[in-house]
Write a structure and sequence with these properties.
It contains 15 helices and 12 strands. The protein is an alpha+beta fold. The strands form 4 sheets. Strands 1-2-3-7-6 form a 5-stranded antiparallel sheet, sandwiched between helices. Strands 8-10-11 form a 3-stranded antiparallel sheet. Helix content is 49%, strand content 12%. The protein binds 5-S-methyl-5-thio-alpha-D-ribofuranose and magnesium ion. 5-S-methyl-5-thio-alpha-D-ribofuranose binds next to helix 7. Magnesium ion binds at residues 47, 238, 243, 255.
Length: 421
């Protein structure tokens, strides 16, 4: 195999080299202290792509995230460009304006080294881990529903000038390789035996049932077309429960390196899907006397996320419709209400979101990148039974979209009661 080529000057950091290499950066020194020999460095990256370091010094802490020139999960046989750090930096700056306080503060960006120095969120931990442990987060649904609404609305033609929107769409269209991952892994690989796929052996009968249905493949490909061609807003692009960090009362969003202009409902649908996988996996993580109450809480989070999304979208519609889409000159200026137009648009967003939710419910079980909700269940026969419910709900959502969150929750409860293997 040819050695991996990296841009000249780039060098991956290590815990040993980081202090010396970053010690000349005023933004870093100002946060952790001037003497690099007094810093301690830990590599904590547990995601699929990057290096992540926590740097602790006498005056404080920060995080250094550096892209590797390959997919960390797979190794250097799958090269991946460093420019994803550039896109992550730029989308973080936009999200910080569109929903202030919801993303980590950036202290420094180095394009050649593909590294972002940012706020250390503490005592936050990854939401997926909290949900596996059975912890609750106050205000989770509202925070994420509002985040999805604000970033979707303010990153779209509902709000931006046409020139800004078009320039930004062109800018983020360079994020090709990360889109390619989503296009293959999220929308396509679940529905055939793709080379990188793997799944729990006992799940095979449910996998066969899913792949035997040509209608589900057609529905997933329709969602892929929406993803590639529906450049409605600047999406986070990978909003799952591993991209959210929380304390018991505070919520932040991280890791938007998959950012791209796509459908308004993409982030909302992916997020709901990851809540649902937390829900389906709970029987393996909770004692019987806690299960019902915790699963009910997760369903409440879904309801609250959706309610907050709609409420915030409605508010922005009333107060910030400054773009070319649905201009007030067509309704309010004519003495007419635009509520009907808004509700039809929201129905379109929800319809898409449910389709994206469906494919995500499949791909985290069938393709390359699984999630800890299921993966940490050691008894594979028990895991397969729970995963089968997720596949089943995804199948239903792709073919019959529920009209609202109450109908979605009814379908989730029905799937959760099924014995599918
Ligand atoms: C090869 S990357 C696999 C997955 O990890 C990221 O977090 C995205 O979800 C991607 O699909
Ligand atoms: Mg990530």
């Amino acid at each position: 195999m040819a050695p991996l080529s990296t841009p000249s000057g780039y060098e991956a950091l290590t815990v040993e080299t980081l202090p010396q290499r970053l010690s000349a950066l005023p933004d870093v020194v100002a946060r952790v202290g001037p003497d690099p020999s007094s810093w301690s460095v830990k590599e904590v990256g547990d995601g699929n792509l990057n290096l992540v370091f926590i740097v602790t010094g006498p005056s404080g802490q920060l995080v250094v995230k550096q892209a590797l020139p390959y997919v960390r999960l797979v190794g250097d046989s799958w090269p991946l460009p460093l420019k994803r750090a550039f896109f992550e930096y730029h989308v973080l700056t936009r999200q910080a304006v569109r929903d202030p306080g919801m993303v980590p503060q950036i202290y420094h960006f180095d394009e050649t080294q593909a590294l972002i120095v940012m706020e250390y969120l503490s005592p936050h931990i990854i939401l997926r881990g909290k949900l596996i442990k059975g912890e609750r987060v106050e205000g989770l649904g509202p925070a994420l529903g509002i985040f999805c609404a604000r970033t979707a609305f303010r990153g779209s033609d509902l709000s931006m000038t046409p020139a800004d929107k078009k320039a930004d769409t062109a800018f983020f269209s360079g994020n090709v390789e990360l889109c390619d991952i989503t296009e293959q892994l999220v929308f396509t690989d679940s529905y055939y035996e793709a080379e990188r796929n793997h799944h729990t052996p006992e799940l095979q009968p449910a996998v066969d049932r899913l792949r035997a249905d040509p209608a589900v493949k057609a529905a997933a490909q329709m969602m892929l077309m929406r993803f590639t061609s529906g450049g409605e807003t600047l999406m986070h692009g990978d909003l799952h429960t591993g991209s959210v960090m929380c304390t018991d009362t505070d919520t932040k969003v991280i890791d938007p390196e998959f950012a791209f202009y796509g459908p308004l409902g993409f982030d909302l649908g992916m997020l709901i899907s990851n809540y649902l996988m937390a829900y389906f996996s709970q029987p393996a993580h909770r004692p019987a006397d806690e299960l019902e109450s915790y699963q009910s809480w997760l369903l409440e989070v879904i309801e609250q996320t959706v309610a907050a999304f709609y409420a915030e979208f409605n508010q922005l519609w009333a107060t910030e419709r400054t773009g070319i889409l649905y201009p007030p000159s067509l309704w309010e200026a004519q003495g007419q209400s635009s509520d009907g137009a808004r509700d039809a648009l929201l129905a379109h967003i929800w319809h898409d979101a449910m389709g994206f939710c469906g494919v995500e419910l499949h791909r985290r079980i069938l393709t390359l990148a699984h999630n800890a909700d299921f993966e940490t269940i050691e008894d594979t026969a028990a895991r397969a039974k729970l995963e089968a419910r997720s596949l089943d709900l995804g199948h239903t959502l792709l073919l019959h979209r529920p009209p609202d969150s109450a109908a979605l929750i009814a379908l989730a409860k029905a799937a959760n009661a099924k014995d599918l293997l």
